[in-house]
Design a protein that fits this description.
With 116 residues, the chain is mainly alpha-helical. The protein contains four helices and two strands.
Amino acid sequence: MDSSSFVEGVYVAVYEGAIDDVVTLLSDSPGRAPSPRIIALSEWYRALEASDAKHVEEVIRLSVDLAVFGFLAVLDGVRAVDNDATELTLLADGEPMNEFGDFHDRFRSLADGDET
């Protein structure tokens, strides 16, 4: 796996997956016993006008985008989670994948191409 395929995988599995999962969760309360919080959010969301629901979906997309981008920036070493850490390296089969520190830039290119 190289850095491009890693970022593309994160884009599909994490970014698109999280957006779809949250919208589905709000649209149809899942499971046999969803939490009262999820039930309340789902009822609220389903009562929205279509244009308002689209705005909520854009807020979901923005939130997921910023979370994934921020995490990739941490992996790239451009955002710190620990001021004492000097280097964070992601390895695939023992080889560094983020040596160029461009995961977050690659993700941004994918996500910006996805804007609707």
